[in-house]
Amino acid sequence: MTEHTTPTPDGTPSGVAVVWDLGNVLIDWQPQDAVAAGVGPEEAARFLAAEDFDFLAWNHVQDAGGGWDDAEAEVARTHPHWAEHARAYRTHFARSLVGEVPGTVDLLRDLHRAGVVQWGLTNWSAELYPHAPERFDFLALLDGVVVSGVEGVAKPDARAFELVAERSGVPLDQMVFVDDRPANVAAAVALGMDGIVFTGAGPLRADLRRRGLPV
User: Which of 86, 105, 121, 153 would be a feasible disulfide site paired with 75, CB 3.0-4.6 Å?
Assistant: First the structure.
């Protein structure tokens, strides 16, 4: 997408939008902290490393539009020994939001000052997402956020990316997508987006500069 990243005379890239994942790109998300608040750190570690229960897969169902009451009831039915641990995650969810990921919010602010269109595309349950804007005021700098749990579709499903293009009015091939999960970036690239696997703010700043973005 080099043809879309030519800077304008004021230094702002023409026609390029940046699409941000939120968890562990802008917001430090540590689910073990929430679970530990209910059952203690040792039990939280056991739960998240369990061979008979896949926390991330279970959480993804809620990210894709599932309800937490149903999710917790299913754990109580199929894995009763993990029921208390599962309930602790939702009950103490705010504890999982540790703070900003160092350095990346500075990039968001730099791009905002330069007038670059920026959107969020997050896998996050509809019920728990309100914790994010209540705590992190920098999210107001985004032009919008597509929340998977609200839409009923989660990355890496192609429809999640298409929704960002529809809401923003920016074509997919004029978007730079940043996510810490390679599978999500691969899905974006397959749709024609430019994709960056996030590994830290320093490498990301360099990657954005190489694309002509003003950071």
Answer: 86
d(C-alpha 21, C-alpha 119), whole Å: 9
The structure's pTM equals 0.91
215 within domain boundaries? no
**Could you tell me which residues come within 8 angstroms of residue 93 by beta carbon, excluding any fewer than 6 positions away?**
34, 128, 131
Q: Is the CB of residue 126 less than 8 Å from the CB of residue 151? A: no
Answer yes or no: do 41 and 22 share one domain: no
Same domain, 86 and 62: yes
Residue 153 CA to residue 159 CA, distance in Å, equals 7
Within a domain: residue 150? Answer: yes
We report the CATH number of the domain holding residue 107 as 3.40.50.1000
d(CA 162, CA 158): 6
Beta carbons within 10 angstroms of residue 91's beta carbon? 16
**Amino acid identity for residue 83 in this structure:** A
Integer Cα distance of 202 and 214 in angstroms: 14
Write out the chain's pLDDT in tens, 215 residues.
Answer: 333 333 443 444 446 999 999 999 999 999 999 999 999 999 999 999 999 999 999 999 999 999 999 999 999 999 999 999 999 999 999 999 999 999 999 999 999 999 999 999 999 999 999 999 999 999 999 999 999 999 999 999 999 999 999 999 999 999 999 999 999 999 999 999 999 999 999 999 999 999 999 99
Last residue of a domain, one of 73, 96, 119: 96
